[in-house]
Amino acid sequence: MKKTHPILSLKILLCAWFAFACALCAAPANAPKTIVLHGPEDETATTVDPASVEHGIAYLRHGEQEGFAAWPANEGMWIWGDEILVSFQVGDYSGSDTRHSIALEGTKRVGFARSLDGGKTWKTEFHDEIVGPDAKGDPKTFSANTTVIEKAVDCPGIADFQDPNFCMKLRGDVFYTSPDRGRSWKGPYRFTGLDPAKLQLATRSTYLVTGKKSALLFLTVREIPGFWRSAVAETTDGGRTFGFVSWIGDGPGERAPKPMPKKFPLYSIMPGFCKMPNGELIVGLREKMGKQTWMDVLSSKDNGKTWSKRSLVETGGNSPAAI
What we know:
Structural class: mainly beta
Distance between the termini: 26 Å
Helix content: under 10%
Number of strands: 21
Radius of gyration: 20 Å
Largest sheet: 5 strands, antiparallel
Number of helices: 3
């Protein structure tokens, strides 16, 4: 069987699903029952039959107490052919009309579900060496887990990012690595080289392997002092050190009203990306300014060094994780 890098497979799958879901939701009742997904101009369009799409449950909490399980966009997803690993946060349920319905004081764990048949069936895993940031009721409002940060060490270096069994989980201020498709994990590791006194990190597992020892990381970062925005970092030594590459797009402070009201929500976060066949990088950003929410799409033709505005996708403020 042909080996496919998990990140590339993930992006292909999610791009197709996102386009299909958006088109289906927006279609009128009498619309044709096929959805056409258009790729680059030099590629043939793909037709998807909605009847061929199956719904499955990756994780279901059993027991008397209601549970909360959500945020795979925060915790990560990896694909190796028919093998899929998805991560999410599990906690106690607490209903709310103003925030996410997770009990803030209850037990919270990072869960995993694995499928070996392309998503038809799933088995649950817990790897308690993985600890997420402390949730404050909304995936945009996490605080650093001081216990995890204190345990974090410098990464000794990854032998080969391109190993088909390798995967990496970025979360908050640290990252973890796995040599066996997420069955065991090492870490937490620091992002050595990104100064925590200048840059506050809220990372998610969005990265692009570019070589045996190199990878680009797409990060949510707050420049201290400043606003949360999106950036690119790079490692060229197997994760031993990281260097800042660029900010993605104009900073949210550039479009803020002057003077800015107190407690004015303003951010440009959660970059989701795909790499086109011609090497161009496409990134979606979750944007908010006051009560306005939207998703911007930007592109880079120089491997993330500079960015230009490409389009506006929607105005609901959804996560770009499906790009």
